[in-house]
Amino acid sequence: MITVDLRSDTVTKPTPEMLAAMMSAKVGDDVFGEDETVAALEAKAAAMFGMEAGIFCPSGTMTNQIAIKCFTQPLDELIADQTAHVYRYEGGGIAFNSGVSTRLLNGDRGRITAEMIAPEINAENIHFPNTSLVVLENTVNKGGGSCYTLADIAPIADLCRDKGLKLHLDGARIFNALANTRDKAVDYGKYFNGVSVCLSKGLGAPIGSVLLADAATIKYARRIRKVLGGGMRQAGFLAAAGIYALDNHVDRLQIDHAHAHILAEELGKLNWVISVMPADTNIVLFDTVEPADYIIKKLNEKGIQCMSTGPNRIRFVLHLDVHPEQVEYTVSVLKGL
Ligand SMILES: *Cc1c(COP(=O)(O)O)cnc(C)c1O
């Protein structure tokens, strides 16, 4: 039986070529600053996004949490959309790691605007937490892979600069956004104080994210990473996978997006599907008449794995281990369900 794993773009396994790159990496003790492959990855990613420096971390949760710690003081408040990964899926880390409260907005599929943010910035008053940070996500996971363009982001960056707020990007899937919007990665450095990029999502590396910022922020970030237990030794074996992914797995994201389109179009024709969100990137969210768990069980029986994101909502995520024949198979199963 054909099997298809549409649960997440984190389920990918390193390709033979990626494994070869990992095995031949030059490594050293990165806590001593002696791993040249880690340094190369950090410099490469920073240059790509027009940032001064970078830090390699085990996860996107850690890069986001370090960024929040770098850009806030305890008793501060950050602003994010109510779907934000930093708020929903990082275990309450904002409060635990940084002692910061969160002001949530109701964006359009997770996308917020300067007009929405402006009235939520607290005035100077001892009753109010000090608003110091805005966090955007691009693409928005819970928005079904919805994207901001840099034109959308520019007014938010202007507002933040004007009000003395920092602006951080949770760019777990930033390359998916770039493939869709055609904006240039290098321009991101002009708008954001911090950018987190996941290597372990659509890019297909087994582990790792990088946080990009100015040199002083990254210097402090190294201190925070150490405190969190994220100082890694011969991490160049992992960084090599990241470098390989940046060199070889960015352009192919278009394939995942095309596959998402095919599935979304097919789902739109089915009478047991109530609605399908636009499949802008590699995620397809759709609502079902029957409970999601019931549909998922039926799909599991046919070898298709996926997850629910609500009682009647199912998520398909496309990635580099889903090939055209598996997409075709999925379409045939959906039609026959
Ligand atoms: C996956 C993800 C992260 C980071 O998750 P880790 O599993 O900790 O690497 C951050 N933000 C978004 C939107 C994500 O989808």
From TrEMBL:
Pfam families named among the record's database cross-references: Beta_elim_lyase
Keywords: Aminotransferase, Lyase, Pyridoxal phosphate, Transferase
Any one GO cellular component localisation term in the record: cytosol
PTM sites of type N6-(pyridoxal phosphate)lysine: K201
Cofactor: pyridoxal 5'-phosphate
Domain of life assignment: Bacteria
GO molecular function (one): transaminase activity
GO biological process, one term: glycine biosynthetic process
UniProt domain Aromatic amino acid beta-eliminating lyase/threonine aldolase: residue ranges: 5-288
SUPFAM superfamilies: PLP-dependent transferases
Family stated for the protein in its record: Belongs to the threonine aldolase family.
Protein name: Aminotransferase class I/II-fold pyridoxal phosphate-dependent enzyme
Organism for this UniProt entry: Mucilaginibacter myungsuensis
